[in-house]
Each structure stands twice: as C-alpha cells, then as structure tokens.
Amino acid sequence: MCVFCKIINKELPAKIVYEDELVVAFHDINPQAPIHILIVPKEHIPTVNDLEEKHKELIGHIFLVAKKIAKDMGFAENGYRILINCNKDGGQEIYHIHYHLFAGKPLGKMICE
Questions:
Q1: Alpha-carbon distance 88 to 52, whole Å?
Q2: Active site residues
Q3: pTM tops 0.70
Q4: Which sites are catalytic (predicted)?
Q5: Helices and strands counted in the chain (H then E)
Q6: Are 24 and 99 in contact (CB under 8 A)?
Q7: So where are the chain's domains?
Q8: 57: part of which helix (H) or strand (E)?
Q9: Handedness of CA 96, 76, 31, 84 (dihedral sign)
Q10: At the topology level of CATH, where does 3-103 sit?
Q11: In this model, does residue 110 exceed pLDDT 90?
C-alpha cells in the first residue's frame, strides 16, 4: 500500500486541511513553498497515464477543491499554482496521482525542479 493510501486510510498521520468522499488534502511534509498542500484522490490511480474516461468528474472536482482551499485559507486573491507530475522524468515520486497546491509567495517561473 502506498503512503497516500495509508494517509487516506488514517494509518499514517497528516495535517489534513480538507476531506470529502472523493479526495483528501493535506500539508506536504517537505514543502517547496510557504503553503504546499497535496490534493489526493481517494481512489488509487498510479499516474496521469492511468486516468480513464470515468475519472473526468473526479479531476474536475480536484480543481474545485483547490479553489475552495485557496479561498478558505485566504490566498486565492494573491494567487497560487497547481502542479501534477507524471512518471519518473516528470518528477513523480509517489505513484498515486496527487496535485501540488503552492502559495504564500511570488512563485516565479518554476519552483519544482
């Protein structure tokens, strides 16, 4: 079982900021910006390449959750970045799709290298 599945199943602790029936969002343990939240679907989907037609609503939901978190945490107006990595060369380290939500400072061209 992957680390995100363990967080979803409450087998590992996490500082959760949002949860519903489809996703869980929590602070990254190695933040790359002042605010770095991971938004993770509860369904284990290894990579973007594993997404199927049936996931369209889930992916849209994730973006609406990101918008809600940004508004609720007070950084929506200043701006934020949403990033997803796919496979090794794309920077993916945990093979359970997850969206990085960065905020809290001007982010420039790229912050995740």
A1: 20
A2: 98
A3: yes
A4: 98 (tele-amp-histidine intermediate)
A5: 2, 5
A6: no
A7: 3-103
A8: helix 56-72
A9: positive
A10: HIT family, subunit A (3.30.428)
A11: no
